[in-house]
Structure formats: structure tokens, C-alpha cells
Design brief:
The protein is an alpha/beta fold. It is built from 11 helices and 8 strands. Strand 3, helix 5 and strand 4 form a beta-alpha-beta unit. The structure holds coproporphyrin III (HT9) and fe (ii) ion.
């Protein structure tokens, strides 16, 4: 089907010190995040002057999408809305409606499936449309892109550059470590239509990036940015604990690639560039953090390709994929639905 607009849909982040608390309240409303954890994360944001990098990264991506679409005679307007901070999705959809938009296709800044990274964005769309009312544009989310070459190749370049920046060391003493945002084990078990999809997609992305960048190097997939109360199990090991294990095993140098994030979010700048880098230093490990795609031209072209794949029928723009896990355009109603605590 045709769409009148393309929507960039993201998480949102504070842009001034006084935004930090209301932003965190938006993120954690109805969630079980202890106040101690919230205070800690507020400090991470204040460490960077109360400004999250994520909104400027979205502005840059939006501009790059416009230029890329123009180069390919795709004159569809592009809009940007967030889950947790301005521009809020409901305001964006109200503006789109005023502009005469009846339908939009949404690119979400997370490639993977799980409640937090996929279904919650579908709920955000439904809630924003309900807030806008009867003439709200219909919004369909684009498919997952965890194995698209436009995601895998920029990450692979990042890994190559990170490895090149480490002092030459025997291959056995060098390790490639992929990270993604930890999620509660229960959320991981319910991810996708049959469960386990978040980890399965990340494992596929890790394997594709490793095969492209460093096929002879051992690698691991571990987790970062754990939240929630301590008694609730989340995916482990944490990157910091894992660095300790590697040091014990005689590893001397690590390249860390945050495949869970498409740009250098605050989690990348704090949990990796500040905390994990510090852990590595204390352990005497050489440490290099690999780049995220950001506005890499191949990543921006991927967004245009995903839009064309969806808008131009009859296989004129076949899906470019490197992996074998199934992908689909429309999630089933039970996809990523929690067993114990229905959310939303
Ligand atoms: C899977 C996943 C992604 C990747 C997919 C995607 O990109 O969407 C992601 C991204 C992000 N998470 C972000 C920020 C936060 N996430 C939090 C809390 C949580 N994240 C969770 C999961 C994820 N989060 C979960 C299960 C929670 C617990 C509360 C809940 O069940 O919802 C909290 C509360 C404090 C805390 O950390 O406890 C904050 C501030 C930012 C913005 C960063 C910036 O400003 O640059 C981004 C991109
Ligand atoms: Fe998060």
C-alpha cells in the first residue's frame, strides 16, 4: 500500500537539566524501577549537563533521511516523534493530521523485537492516535532490520577500526564483545511470537558483524544498562562482570561493539565509554569501543530501502537480508506480550 508520510519514531531524551526528572518519570511510569536506580540514572544525565545525545542524533538522522529520499525521488514528507520526550509522538501525529497526512510508515530506532524495543512502540502509536482522535493518521511500523546489510556493515566497520586501534596482540589475547541493553528475563522469554526473539536476533546480528569484521576472533554477546529491582532477574552477564572474567582468562585487549544501539545513546556514553572503560582500566585490559551506525550513508540508505520495500508492491524492492531468522511486516497480537504482568 501507499503511505503519505514516513515517521521516525524514537525513545526521546532530556535536553536541559530541568527536563531530566520529568523525562525519567515518563520512562518509568507504571514500571518497577526503584528510586535509587532512578537517582543514579538522573546523575548520569546531569553528568552530561542534563542533555541526552539522542535527540540531536534523531535530528541528524531526520536530515539525512530527507536528503537520501530526495536523491531517490521519494518526496514523502518525514516526521519525527518520541515515546518519552518532545517532540512527543501525539503532537507529531496531530501536526501530520493538520498537514493532511492519512497514513504513515514508521521507522523505529530499535532493530530488535521485545516488549521494550518493539511492542511498546506499537502501544505508543495506538495511544498517540487515540489522543489525536478520529482523523489521526494510520501508522504502520516497518519490519525489524537486525540483519540488514545497512546495519551490519557499519557495525562491522566500527569493529575493524576498534581492533586496529588496539596495540597488536596475539589473537588469543584479543576478544570481541558485543553488548545490548539488558531486559528482564521474563521479557526476554516472551519476546516475539514464540519467545526468545530479542536474544536470537542479537545473536544473529553479532554473528553477522563478527563474520564480516573479524572471522578468526572469538566473540561474546553480553548485556549492559540493567535496571529494575535487584530481586528481579535480568539478562546476564553484565559487561563489567564479563570484563573481569576475560581478564581472569588471560585476555589482554577487548573491542566492544554496542550492537543493541543504532547511535551513541547515553547508555553508550555512560555505561560503556565511562563505566566499562574504567572497569577495563582497573583490570589492566586494553579497551576500544566500536562505533554505532549513527548517520552512516549505508544505514540511511537502509531506511529508504525499508520504506520502498513496504511502499512499492510486487517485489520491485526485495528485502535485503543477511540472516535466516523470519521477519514480517505486521506483528501478531500476542507478540512480545508478557505472561505474568500485561503492560500498557
Ligand atoms: C531494550 C531497551 C532499549 C533498546 C531499544 C530502544 O532503543 O528502544 C532501551 C533503550 C533506551 N533506554 C533509554 C533510557 C532509559 N531506559 C530506562 C529503563 C529501561 N530500559 C529498558 C529496555 C530498553 N531500553 C527497560 C526494560 C527498562 C526498565 C523500565 C521499563 O520496563 O521500561 C530508563 C529508566 C532508568 C533506568 O535505566 O533504570 C532510562 C532513562 C534510552 C535513552 C538514552 C538516551 O537518553 O540517550 C534508550 C534509547
Ligand atoms: Fe532503556
Amino acid at each position: 500500500m501507499g503511505y503519505d508520510a514516513v515517521l521516525l519514531l524514537s525513545f526521546g531524551g532530556p535536553e536541559r537539566p530541568e527536563d531530566v526528572l520529568p523525562f525519567l518519570q515518563n520512562v518509568t511510569r507504571g514500571r518497577r524501577v526503584p528510586p535509587e536506580r532512578l537517582a543514579e540514572v538522573a546523575e548520569h544525565y546531569q553528568h552530561f549537563g542534563g542533555v541526552s545525545p539522542i535527540n540531536d542524533q534523531c535530528r541528524a538522522l531526520l536530515a539525512a533521511m530527507r536528503a537520501e529520499f530526495d536523491r531517490h525521488q521519494l518526496d514523502t514528507p518525514v516526521y519525527w516523534g518520541n515515546r518519552n520526550w518532545h517532540p512527543m509522538l501525539a503532537d507529531t501525529l496531530a501536526q501530520a493530521r493538520d498537514d493532511g497526512v492519512e497514513s504513515a510508515v514508521a521507522f523505529v530506532t530499535s532493530p530488535y523485537g521485545s516488549y521494550s524495543s518493539c511492542r511498546q512502540y506499537l502501544e505508543d502509536i495506538a495511544a498517540a492516535r487515540a489522543a489525536v482522535g478520529p482523523r489521526a493518521p494510520v501508522v504502520h511500523k516497518l519490519r525489524h532490520y537486525h540483519d540488514h546489510p545497512g546495519l551490519v556493515e557499519p557495525f562491522a566497520d566500527g569493529v575493524r577500526q576498534a581492533l586496529a586501534s588496539l596495540a597488536p596482540a596475539p589473537r588469543e589475547a584479543t576478544r570481541l564483545v558485543f553488548t545490548a541493553h539488558s531486559i528482564p528475563v521474563e521479557m526476554a522469554e516472551c519476546a516475539g511470537p514464540e519467545g526468545g526473539r530479542y536474544e536470537a536476533q542479537l545473536a544473529e546480528t553479532a554473528a553477522l558483524v563478527a563474520a564480516a569484521a573479524a572471522p578468526d576472533l572469538p566473540y561474546d554477546l553480553v548485556w549492559q544498562s540493567r535496571s529494575g529491582p535487584p530481586q528481579v532477574p535480568w539478562l546476564e552477564p553484565d559487561i563489567n562482570d564479563h570484563l573481569g572474567t576475560l581478564a581472569e582468562q588471560g585476555v589482554g585487549a577487548v573491542a566492544v561493539s554496542p550492537i543493541g544501539f543504532i547511535s551513541d545513546h547515553l547508555e553508550v556514553m555512560w555505561d560503556l565509554d565511562t563505566e566499562a572503560a574504567d572497569t577495563a582500566k582497573q583490570l589492566g585490559l586494553e579497551y576500544a569501543r566500536a562505533a554505532t551506525p549513527g548517520t552512516d550513508p549505508r544505514f540511511v540508505a537502509m531506511i529508504r530501502e525499508l520504506v520502498q520495500e513496504r511502499m512499492v508492491p510486487e517485489g520491485d524492492h526485495p528485502a535485503r537480508r543477511m540472516g535466516t531468522l523470519p521477519v514480517w511486516d505486521t506483528c501478531l497480537s500476542h507478540c512480545c506480550q508478557s505472561r505474568s504482568a500485561p503492560r500498557g
